[in-house]
Specification:
Strand content: 15-25%
Oligomer: single chain
Number of domains: 1
CATH superfamily: HybD-like
Number of strands: 6
Distance between the termini: 19 Å
Radius of gyration: 14 Å
CATH class: Alpha Beta
Order of helices and strands: EHEHEEEHEH
Shape: globular
Helix content: 25-40%
Structural class: alpha/beta
Length: 144
C-alpha cells in the first residue's frame, strides 16, 4: 500500500496531510509527502495498485470532519486553498480519463477552516489528523 500525504506545513490546516504522514512514520508505517500537484501525484502512484491519499479539503462541513472517498466514483470535493493550479481532484480525474488510476485509490479528506500563512493548525483539524492516523494504522495492522 502506498500512502501519500499532501499539504503545506506553512498554511495552518493545510498541514493536515503532512501531520498524518509524520505520525504514521512514528508508528513505523511508510508514508510519503507530496505538495499535491497533479503531475507529482500521478507519478507517485503510477506503479502502485493500492493507494491512500490524505489531504485537507473544503466541502462546507465543520472543520475536523474526516471524509473517506473511493476514487472509483467521481469525486465532489475541493482541495484546500491550494497554490497549485491542478490539485488532487484534477489529478484523479485526469488519471481516470487517461486510464491510469491505481486499481484501488482512496482519499482521506480532513475538513479545514484556516489556511492563513504562519497560523497554527486548528484543534479540530488536529483531532481529524488523529482519527485518520488511527484508521490507517488499524488498516495496516500497526495499531497504536
Amino acid at each position: 500500500m502506498l500512502i501519500l500525504a499532501c499539504g503545506n506545513r506553512n498554511r495552518a490546516d493545510d498541514a493536515a496531510g503532512i501531520l498524518v504522514a509524520e505520525r504514521l512514520r512514528e508508528l513505523g508505517i511508510d508514508a510519503k509527502e507530496c505538495a499535491g500537484e497533479a503531475p507529482d501525484l500521478m507519478e507517485a502512484w503510477s506503479a502502485a495498485d493500492n493507494v491512500i491519499v490524505v489531504d485537507c479539503v473544503m466541502t462546507g462541513v465543520p472543520a475536523g470532519t474526516v471524509h473517506l472517498w473511493d476514487a472509483s466514483h467521481p469525486l465532489a470535493f475541493k482541495s484546500s486553498g491550494s497554490t497549485h493550479g491542478l490539485g488532487l481532484g484534477e489529478a484523479i480525474e485526469l488519471a481516470r480519463s487517461l486510464g491510469c488510476l491505481p486499481a484501488r485509490l482512496r482519499i482521506y479528506g480532513i475538513e479545514g477552516k484556516n489556511f492563513e500563512v504562519g497560523a497554527a493548525v486548528s484543534v479540530e483539524v488536529q483531532r481529524g489528523v488523529a482519527e485518520v492516523v488511527n484508521k490507517i494504522a488499524a488498516e495496516t495492522g500497526s495499531g497504536q
